[in-house]
Design brief:
Structural class: alpha/beta
Strand order of the largest sheet: 6-7-8-3-9-10
Helix content: 25-40%
Shape: elongated
Number of domains: 2
Radius of gyration: 23 Å
Strand content: 25-35%
Number of helices: 10
Oligomer: single chain
Largest sheet: 6 strands, mixed
Number of strands: 14
CATH superfamily of the largest domain: P-loop containing nucleotide triphosphate hydrolases
């Protein structure tokens, strides 16, 4: 396995007495496209800012390309592209001058790539940044993160202000970027369907805890919904281990249960014990997220 682009070990972050991140340990390697999901306040932005060294951890360590995140060399910083949730552009500059200014800090700035993407994304580079719409500014901030061909690309809600067509174009470009096995991408978004389309790994944050860290397909395989229909009212405890949620239907003869790590032998046991029919339903990432937080 290639050396880790990002390595977090027992990472915690607190603001006063409020703990935002709780003992996070994980790694991101080249070729990984990690989708980060969680409710508002789960710690997504804090996690991204801490792993990039903008804010020191309360305890534990965060390393990027083998260096402590808060003490990264200029050489390592030049390998990173970052799109923050709140873009920090200069309103009096035109988009073109903003990109030119940003490009001055990188030896390998790809002017041709940025010009092409700006045309495809319909970014009006000759207008002042302050006169651009929120979606146009977000596109411009993303261009600034891509021009140096980063080995690590970190995006915090990069499509929140984009219309559906612009989102589709952006995600297509992200898929092309992610196809490079030497690059790692970490992508936070509230639009779970977008993450499902591009991410090969998922981080689920809940109350500062990394609840899931693994392959997207493995997560979808591990969570199933059982629809149980019986001939008589079902007991209050139907004996299903690792439940995420349970909903009873009117009359008490139907139950819908969402479970994690379903055992193959469970369904026939339930059907025999409850004198019921059990139907298994696979779930998409958005449904899994809702079930975990229900």
């Amino acid at each position: 396995m290639s050396a880790a682009a990002v390595r977090l070990q027992d990472l915690t972050k607190s603001f006063g007495r409020h703990q935002v991140l709780a003992g996070i340990t994980t790694e991101v390697h080249p070729g990984d496209v990690v989708g980060v999901i969680g409710k508002n306040g789960a710690g997504k932005t804090t996690l991204l800012e801490t792993l990039l060294g903008f804010s020191p951890p309360t305890s534990g360590t965060a390393q990027v390309f083998g260096e402590e995140a808060t003490q990264m060399s200029n050489a390592v910083k030049a390998r990173i592209g970052f799109v923050p949730q709140q873009e920090e552009l200069l309103p009096t500059l035109t988009g073109r001058r903003q990109l030119a200014l940003n490009g001055c800090f990188y030896r390998n700035w790809d002017h041709a790539l940025i010009e092409r993407l700006a045309r495809e994304w319909e970014v009006p580079l000759d207008r002042r940044v302050g006169a651009l719409s929120s979606g146009e500014r977000q596109k411009l901030a993303t261009l600034m993160a891509l021009g140096n061909h980063p080995d690590l690309l970190v995006l915090d809600e990069p499509v929140a202000a984009l219309d559906p067509l612009a989102r589709r174009r952006f995600l297509q470009q992200l898929l092309e970027i992610a196809a490079d096995p030497s690059r790692a991408v970490i992508f936070s978004s509230h639009i779970v369907s977008d993450l499902e389309r591009v991410a090969n790994r998922i981080w689920i944050l809940r109350d500062g805890v990394l609840l899931w860290d693994g392959d997207t397909d493995a997560l979808k395989q591990s969570v199933k919904r059982l629809h149980i229909t019986a001939r008589r009212p079902l007991p209050s405890d139907i004996g299903v281990p690792r439940q995420l949620s349970m909903r009873r239907g009117a009359g008490g003869t139907t139950v819908t249960v969402t479970v994690r790590d379903l055992e193959d032998s469970l369904v026939p046991r339930l059907e025999q014990r409850l004198d019921a029919h059990v139907e298994i339903e696979g779930l998409g990432l958005e449904d899994i997220f809702l079930e975990i937080h229900s």
